[in-house]
Amino acid sequence: MRYILAAVPALELKVNGFLSEEVLSRLLAPIDTQLARNVKEPCTLLIDILGMQGYSPEARSAYVAWHRRSPANLIAVAVVTSNKLWTMVIAAIGITVPLRAFDSRDKAETWLRQHASRPRAAS
């Protein structure tokens, strides 16, 4: 799914149930496709994990690896979760693209809008 934040396309990924590496790969495939379509077009990503019941260590490692190799047009990632432990895990990842957890979609979208409105260098 795509929506627009301050004229910057935003992508969305929703996780329900248990997240395995296989499920993560399947969920990230359309995100990768969208990011690759126009590498000069900045995008944000909202990940909703309110329905996630857990994840495998392999899924976590695969996500960190994906995030580290994400293209330059991915300018910010917001994760919506009510799980305090996962919020701390997300805060500890410390990757090059801004990544932050929020307890509501509204807060996540506000933060993404702030990133979307920041001036960027021309490519």
Secondary structure layout:
Elements: E1 2-5, E2 8-19, H1 21-37, E3 43-55, H2 57-68, E4 74-80, H3 84-93, E5 99-102, H4 105-116
Parallel strand pairs: 2-3, 3-4, 4-5
Antiparallel strand pairs: 1-2
Helix pairs in contact: 1-2
Question: TL;DR?
Answer:
The chain has helices spanning 21-37, 57-68, 84-93, 105-116; strands at residues 2-5, 8-19, 43-55, 74-80, 99-102.
What are the key terms here?
five-stranded mixed β-sheet, 5 strands, 123 residues, 4 helices, Rossmann fold
Can you characterise this structure?
The protein contains four helices and five strands. The chain has helices spanning 21-37, 57-68, 84-93, 105-116, and strands at residues 2-5, 8-19, 43-55, 74-80, 99-102. It starts with a strand and ends in a 7-residue tail after the last helix. Helix 1 (21-37) packs parallel to helix 2 (57-68). It has one domain: 3-Layer(aba) Sandwich (Rossmann fold), CATH 3.40.50. 41% of the residues lie in helices and 33% in strands. A five-stranded mixed β-sheet has the order 1-2-3-4-5, sandwiched between helices. Mean pLDDT is 86; it is low at 1-5. Helix 2 links the parallel strand 3 and strand 4. It is an alpha/beta fold and 123 residues long. The chain is globular, with a radius of gyration of 14 Å.
